[in-house]
Design goal:
Elements: H1 7-16, H2 20-33, H3 38-50, H4 54-67, H5 72-84, H6 88-101, H7 106-118, H8 122-135, H9 140-152, H10 156-169, H11 175-186, H12 190-197, H13 202-214, H14 219-233
Helix pairs in contact: 2-3, 3-4, 3-5, 4-5, 5-6, 6-7, 7-8, 7-9, 8-9, 9-10, 10-11, 11-12, 13-14
Length: 234
Amino acid sequence: MIDLLDPTNVITRMFNTENYDQLYNYCKDLLKKDPTDMLALQNISLSLIYLKNYEEALVYCDKVLEIKPSDTYALKNKIFALESLKQYHDVLKLCEGILLTNPKDTWALNTMGISLNELDRHKDALQYYDTSLVIDPNDVTALMNKAISLSHLGNYQDAIDYYDLAQRVDSGLREIPSVKSKLFEKLNMPDEAFLAAQGVLNKDMDKIKSDAKENKCSIFHQFCDDEFQNSDSK
């Protein structure tokens, strides 16, 4: 039988119903009884993050870390709060600490890269995305942010290729077609820009272009004809 008054169950219920104010007050009461209550300290910082009170969230994260310096949950909450406050140099320091303990922590690697992007250190960011992709070649976060870094560095074709890889892994990423299209425009490739905007993968573009040439029609007409035939066959 579930104990509805058990603090863990109460906190879970408040979190799931998005009652972050209540969660904050509940944890505050728990801490009056025991200032070292880890469950309360962890969740009061979480509630404060959702309430966008990042400065106070940092206070409680630090209290957890005073008790347990390597607490991953508190470190990640603190990093999120620091990111929200745009304190990216502090984020880098914390990520370095996590990576000293676990060099294969892809979350820390990607967070490190994103902070470097925010600091306009796009070339430095690439090494962290590359390391993450060695560990997991299908890491969408790393693929997307490497593409962003490459785009900032003016390497548009490489950026397109990484956006395309991300699109293959997760076809539901709605922002990719538009971004790829704009990059093709920068490369003065209007046909590819049109196809990219329709969500066409790079590997499928050559066939559409070849068919258009064979049928002596525009890329637009060939694409529309292919779409019509595909829908008709269904």
